[in-house]
Amino acid sequence: MLPLRQPFDVAHDDAQTNAAQTSGAPMTLGRAIVITSGKGGVGKTTTTANLGVALAKRGAKVALVDADVGLRNLDILMGLESRVRHHVLDVLEEKVELDEALVRDKHFPNLFLLAAAQSREKDEVDTESMRDLIEELREQFDYVLIDCPAGIEMGFKNAVVGAQEAIVVCTPEVSAVRDVDRVVGLLGNAFTPKLIINRVRPHLVHKGKMLSVEDVNSILRLPLLGVIADEPDVIVSTNKGEPLALRTDTATAKAYHTIAARIAGEDVPAPMVEYKETFIDKLGSLLGGRR
Amino acid sequence: MTFNDVFNNLSRLFGREKSGETAKERLRLVLMSDHLSLAPDMVEAMKRDLVEVVSRYVEVDRDKIDVRFEHQDSVFAMLANVPIISVNRTPSPPVGPPRRRRRKKRSMQPAQQNGQMPPSGPGTSGASAAPSFS
Amino acid sequence: MKARKIVLTSGKGGVGKTTATVNIGAALAKRGHRVILVDTDIGLRNLDLVLGLEKRIVFDLVEVIEGRCQVRQALIKDKRFESLAILPAAQTRNKDSITQAQMARLIDELADMADYVLIDCPAGIEGGFRNAIAGADEAIVVTTPEVSAIRDADRVIGKLAERSIPMRLIINRIRPDMVRSGDMLSIDDVCEILSIELLGIIPDDEEIIDTTNRGEPLVLGEGYRLRSIYEKIVRRLEGDLIPFTNLDAPGFFGRLIGALKAG
Q1: In angstroms, what separates the C-alpha of B77 from chain C's closest C-alpha?
Q2: Given A19, A59, A144, B81, which is the most exposed site by the fewest CB atoms within 10 A?
Q3: How far is the C-alpha of B16 from the C-alpha of C109, rounded, in Å?
Q4: CA nearest neighbour of A82 among C190, C148, B69, C156
């Protein structure tokens, strides 16, 4: 039979998740955070998926919204592509109820995905309706993470419109830093964006062939949430549709969990990536290996 | 390098974990789904033809026909829900070249339950009516 | 004679469009062609940075289209190759500052001044994409062997096919060690899924990061591993039949390191 999605029922959802809310007031709205970067391919979607998992693992009720209409990928990274029946535009155009369009995660009953429409265009999204939709989600969830498309066109505007907070993802590359700088300018004073530096290769930084975390942030000057190393694991996890944060034992998974703790307000230091020369590095350089 | 890393590398060396294959299979299914949703005209035309074929054999309720495409575990399937009003009609002869009669072992399962695309070979009607699943 | 007008596009960002544009352009210039590179990523320009020409920008693409300057005034010639020039995008404007028709006219005008016009397309499939492909009569689709990049490339291929633009594929950032260990889609897998003609296979190599930092395209430097790969891509582009580099033939130590590094 069909893998039927369980009906979404607010009343029955884990009472303990309310603990993650910032105050005890019953109608406290959740936090809507947009994950953006300007440049594509820096890891926005990977970050959204992993932070979603890490926050859900803490017991918070989390909705992930894919705002990349026409080029959706959050479903693939979450491994939920075969469960998507409806999308953001179906909800905005009132073809289905919000609850029907939310896809429950395979691993966490308190984690949901709202997929983007794949066969539509970004300018079909009505900005005001999008703002209302995010607000509606904030009534039901502790966190609403919005995965912003690359670029600064309509897709960016619609992704940002309902958010009160922003996380910018940057890689240690000149073009990515320039684009983040531009995006931070466009976000304006309404946001104090926090920074995640992704895809750091410590041995390259060590050799002076890659910008360091300090280099990047001396230009951007943003509060640093954390640093994530460039690991082939990311490709494997995308292949399988299993975010790295499902685990707790790898360095990358730990970094995501720490960043999630920081987002939740815990006073823990930002995860960093340190250079350690391993036996393999030595062997590799001896044998003329590339890395 | 932790024990886990060593273990993962060893299992890769011995081919126990092949995420590349998983990726290929997932892509194949998701692109099929994308392509269908990108070509609504084609899907509509297919639905029309499908209904026409089924109507040659049984009287169907055209207003309540529901054809959709869904993922089912490892396959991407076309699911047709075609309410039948009556089966008392004499079937009209099928259009097309004459076919040889061949005895076929008939599956009792409707198409949507075995999760396969309906076979397109001769001797099959192309879709089966099935109980509602919505 | 008019130039060939080729757009480099991908759907997904960060797969290496700009790097490929710069290196293919530089390799073509090295072969004696007059080449103009056009950055159509209005608001997020980067082609100038990758070539190290960012300090010499006076006018940009939008100013040319709005008639504030002549095309020749806005073109920046590369220091290393006089026959290589870029037309930078505007940084403080929106992508809807120009129309598809204006872009097509501009690319046509540039085509009278060069042998090749390479158009660097922004990420996404919004207005910026539509503008970038408006003036092109060929396309190079750049992708990486990752599920999301391939899904986006497939979407772009559909859009290009609607406009009957002939296209070829570059697969970037292949990690042969991961392909061998089964943790990365292979060239054959990607070609089978996307089913368009293959133009090039580029391995993932850290020298790209280094050369981009310094604003020096690696095809113009000495001793870079990827240089010959770009040179082959350019020869294929010009119609030569060049066999693809076999990335699947490691020595024993290569295999050992690959396997250990895969973790």
Answers
A1: 19
A2: A19
A3: 57
A4: B69
What is the arithmetic mean of pLDDT over B17-45?
86
| Residue C262 in contact with partner chain A when CB distance is under 8 A | yes
Q: Which three-class secondary structure state does DSSP give residue C98?
A: coil
- pLDDT of the residue at B52: 87
Closest CA to B79 of B46, B34, B38: B46
The verdict on a CB contact (< 8 Å) between B27 and C155 is no
Give this prediction's pTM.
Answer: 0.83
pLDDT of residue C189: 96
**C-alpha count within 13 angstroms, C-beta hemisphere, residue B79:** 19
Q: B2 to chain A: which residues are within 8 Å by CB?
A: 249
Which residue type occupies C90? A
Cα radius of gyration rounded to whole Å, chain B: 21
Mean pLDDT estimate for chain C: 93
Interchain contact C46–A (C-beta under 8 A): yes
Q: What average pLDDT does the structure give for chain A? A: 89
Q: Please, which residues bridge with residue B78 across strands?
A: B69
Token couple for C210: 């280094």
Q: What ipTM is given for this predicted complex?
A: 0.91
Could you give the CA distance from residue A55 to residue B77 in angstroms, rounded to a whole number?
A: 34
CA separation for the pair C180, C44 (Å, rounded): 37
Cα distance between residue A82 and residue B26, in whole Å? 9
Q: Could you give the 3-state DSSP secondary structure of residue C124?
A: coil
Cβ atoms C12, C103 nearer than 8 A: no
- Which tokens hold the place of C118? 């390479």
Interface test with A, best of B30, B36, B75 (most A CBs within 10 A): B30
Rounded to the nearest 5°, which phi and psi values hold at B78?
-95, 130
Question: Cα separation of A194 and A196, whole Å?
Answer: 7
Q: In the predicted model, is pLDDT for residue C74 greater than 70?
A: yes
Residue appearing with tokens 């009343």: A11
Note whether C202 and C167 are within 8 A (CB).
no
Residue-wise pLDDT for C13-45, tens only, equals: 999 999 999 999 999 999 999 999 999 999 999
Structural tokens at position A18 = 């309310």
Cα torsion angle, A203, A206, A209, A211, sign:
positive
A166 phi and psi, to 5 degrees?
-135, 140
State the pairing for strand pair B84-86/B59-60: antiparallel
Q: Which of B1, B4, B30 sits opposite A249 (nearest CB)?
A: B4
C230 neighbors C219 (Cβ within 8 angstroms)? yes
Task: Tell which wins on pLDDT, B94 or A225.
Answer: A225
Cα–Cα dist A93/C111, whole Å: 44
Which residues 83-112 of chain A have a CB within 8 Å of chain C?
none
Sign of the alpha-carbon dihedral angle for A257, A258, A262, A265: positive
